[in-house]
Design a protein that fits this description.
Strand content: 5-15%
Oligomer: single chain
Mean pLDDT: 96
Number of helices: 22
Helix content: 40-55%
Distance between the termini: 54 Å
Radius of gyration: 25 Å
Low-confidence stretches: none
């Protein structure tokens, strides 16, 4: 599948990216793609016109467009679970009829969004109260997709917060919920329990602890709990009234779910109008993805750049580097989106993949990362393709000089990765410091930057709800394209199950209820250590 591209890579692997700019005056414009004011620059890569054509041909050969259309039409492209994949419908509840299992799903989507708008408005206005009056704090309890998305987006849109304070609990480690609840008032706190099945062990353990805390503190757990779940029997048994339960269908995967009820905490924080702008941003990217062709399609090109770097060039990881402190959870969110979706070793037909699948995704916001891992990115022996993001304008007009410095650092880093520093330049630097001979040579070699390290830059006017929606949908569709080309199912996650099953079997052993006779020697020894010291 990748033979042509690998041949092309072998022929140009030592070529200088900088030379491509000398050969083509308009390279920056030609190797960029825009959606309105959202601008993706991939010119600082080894991709040239011939390589791009081969990448686009690969996408055509693998039927990406037809597979995309099948997804938007509601066909069950998640074929290991027999489900449609329609998180995109959550951001378009007023669209044309969309049939799943013989029924139009749009009316239910609209009704659920209207219910979300209503309760968010009542909470924000003070019409919905706790035992102590107006709700001051919201605690969202979930894990994975029920936490990472809304936690990331709520932080990202902090300038738009004008509702109750929002807190997020995910880890079953008691320290997480203890630290989040200790300064809150049980009588003015609303708890949202986010679990589709209402059986997720970490979430339900935390939910029970939060309910005990609320009752002991004088709150009303029936009144001050909401559930984001389809398991109405279990939410009722927990004591949550039906009107405070918001369900979503099985064609919405957890890591794609914050566009619907899982995003309720975000809606409460920023308000229904800003949440609507967030949905509109996602829909704008959907429309672009479905209509833009070839190199003018931003999700397609972002995916093809990623495939080029990972599957063809052999770079095992990619760094997501937003130059925005409020996007400090974005890398973790994209980490789940990519690695849970495309971290597979089996093709759709059940055969073993004979090529690597998803990359390792990691990162931190700039400029913090510059003083941590950028040393390895610039001078390490391996190459890490970097994906920079930055807004032209910040949200703090009185601190504009901060933002100017932030943008300067972002642009400088991608330039430095590409240009590097030669040994001759380093020698001149050391000579200017008065060094000579062997010591000059030794010191100069420490100051060499290989350069020729690829990066992309996503730039936008300002981080607004609409722009955030565009960015998240962009990366969702990027994952879709990569999965389609690789021939795997991006929408199941069986790899999550085995550890959960074993944890359930180990829980009684940790309590000392059963002998660990069926465990391997290492697990049995570690269990023995815990039992003797807990």
């Amino acid at each position: 599948m990748f033979e042509t591209l690998k041949t092309q890579h072998a022929a140009i692997k030592d070529r200088k990216i900088l030379d491509l700019f000398d050969a083509q005056n308009d390279r920056a414009a030609d190797f960029s793609v825009a959606l309105g004011d959202l601008h993706l620059d991939y010119s600082k890569t080894q991709i040239d016109t011939d390589i791009r054509a081969a990448l686009l041909d690969l996408a055509n050969t693998r039927g990406v467009s037809a597979y995309r259309d099948a997804m938007f039409a509601g066909q069950p492209i998640n074929d290991t679970e027999g489900r449609a994949v329609l998180h995109t419908a959550l951001r378009d509840p007023d669209g044309a009829p969309l049939m799943v299992d013989g029924a139009d799903i749009r009316p239910d989507l609209r009704a659920t969004l209207d219910r979300m708008n209503d309760i968010a408005t009542r909470i924000r206005s003070g019409a919905f109260t706790g035992e102590g009056g107006t709700i001051t704090d919201v605690v969202n309890i979930g894990i994975g997709g029920s936490d990472l998305g809304p936690a990331m987006a709520t932080l990202a849109l902090a300038p738009y917060h004008d509702g109750p304070r929002c807190h997020f609990v995910s880890n079953v480690d008691g320290a997480d919920i203890n630290d989040k609840l200790q300064d809150l008032d049980p009588k003015t706190t609303l708890v949202i329990v986010a679990s589709k099945t209402f059986t997720t062990i970490e979430t339900m353990t935390n939910a029970q602890t939060a309910r005990d805390w609320m009752v002991q503190g004088g709150g009303d757990s029936g009144k001050q709990f909401l559930a984001l779940s389809t398991a109405e029997d279990k939410t009722a048994a927990f004591g949550i009234p039906a009107e405070q339960v918001f369900g979503f269908e099985d064609w919405v995967g957890g890591r794609y779910s914050m566009w619907g009820p899982i995003g309720l905490s975000l809606m409460i924080a920023v308000g229904p109008e800003n949440f609507a702008a967030f949905l509109a941003g996602g829909k704008a990217m959907d429309d672009h993805f479905c209509t833009a062709t070839g190199a003018d399609n931003m999700p397609l090109m972002l995916a093809l750049v990623g495939l080029w770097h990972h599957q063809i060039c052999g770079h095992p990881s990619r760094a997501v580097l937003p130059y925005d402190q409020r996007l400090s959870r974005l890398a973790a969110y994209f980490q789940q989106l990519e690695m849970e979706s495309n971290g597979k070793s089996v093709a759709m037909d059940g055969s073993s993949l004979d090529y690597v699948s998803g990359p390792i995704v990691w990162g931190e916001p700039g400029t913090n990362g510059q003083h941590a891992f950028y040393q390895l990115i610039h001078q390490g022996t391996g190459v890490v393709p970097c994906e920079f993001m930055v807004a032209a304008k910040g949200h703090e007009p009185d601190l504009h000089h901060h933002h100017q410095l932030l943008v300067a650092n972002c642009l400088a880093q991608s330039e430095a990765l590409m240009c590097g520093r030669s040994l001759d330049t380093a020698r001149d630097m050391m000579a200017a410091k008065g060094l000579s001979g062997d010591e000059l040579e030794r010191q100069a070699r420490h100051r060499v930057f290989a350069g020729n390290r690829p990066s992309t830059t996503l730039i936008y006017p300002q981080l607004t709800p609409h722009v955030l929606g565009q960015i998240i949908a962009l990366y969702e569709h990027r994952v879709f394209v990569e999965g389609a080309i690789l021939g795997l199912n991006s929408y199941d996650q069986w790899g999550v199950e085995l550890g959960k099953e074993l944890a359930s079997s180990l829980a009684p052993l940790i309590k000392g209820d059963v002998s660990a006779t069926d465990k391997d020697g290492s697990t049995a020894a570690l269990l023995d250590y815990v039992l003797k010291r807990a």
